Amino acid sequence: LAFNTGFAMAFVGALYIMFYIRERTTRAKLLQMVSGVNVALFWAVSFVWDYLVYLVVCGFYLGTVAAIQQDGWSTAEQLVKVFLMLVLFGFAVIPTTYLFSYLFDVPATGFVKMILFNVLSGTVFFTAITLLKFEGIDLKDVANALEWVFMFFPNFVLSHSLNNLNRVASTEALCDRQCELIP
């Protein structure tokens, strides 16, 4: 589920780029600045609005995850942890998307390239680290070094943290089952 969430959030994070590319290329942003809108106020209001929309998406996601009742993702405590991770992910991915909006002039192109970047920096890096940590490959040192490098990418951090949350929940469930066997 961590992999799938990272993949889905690659699309969610990329959605915010289209409006800001269009606003910049049509010079609507310039018109706002000329009419006296403070730059800091412009970006603060934009972030607050985008973040509120993002929280609605997170609510739908959590509702879906709660309905599925997947092991490690089903209790209220686990869902609160997932929500906290999504909240923090939003604080990272939205400003990152704002920065990338300056690299593109066509909204659709920016959207597609941002999706590709998010998928690469999230799910592909996450899969690579997971594969490098397998026992038979014997590249755990490389995986640990790359893991720290990839921590700069919000999508990787989301997948990695959700995977760690699932691993902890699975270990706790296993320990609980084993402790029940002790007389």
Q: If you had to describe this structure to a student in words, what would you say it looks like?
A:
It is a multi-pass membrane protein. This is Retinal-specific ATP-binding cassette transporter. Pfam families: ABC2_membrane_3. The chain is mainly α. The protein has one domain (2-180). It has 8 helices and no strands. Helix 4 (39-68) runs antiparallel to helix 5. The chain is elongated. The two termini are 35 Å apart. The model has no long low-confidence stretch (mean pLDDT 89).
Q: Key features?
A:
183 residues, mainly alpha, 8 helices, transmembrane, nucleotide-binding
Fold topology:
Elements: H1 2-15, H2 17-25, H3 28-34, H4 39-68, H5 76-100, H6 107-132, H7 140-150, H8 154-180
Pfam family, one: ABC2_membrane_3
InterPro entries: ABC2_TM
Main location: membrane
- Integer average pLDDT: 89
Write down how many β-strands occur, each being a DSSP E stretch of 2 or more residues. 0
Give the radius of gyration.
20 Å
Give the assembly state of these chains.
single chain
Count of domain modules = 1
Q: How far apart are the termini?
A: 35 Å
The gross shape turns out to be elongated
Helix content: over 70%
Strand-residue proportion: under 5%
One letter per element, helices H and strands E, the order comes to HHHHHHHH
Biggest sheet architecture: none
Which parts are unreliable, with pLDDT below 50 for 5 consecutive residues or more? Answer: none
Summarize the structure.
With about 180 residues, the protein is mainly alpha-helical. The protein has helices spanning about 1-15, 15-25, 30-35, 40-70, 75-100, 105-130, 140-150, 155-180.
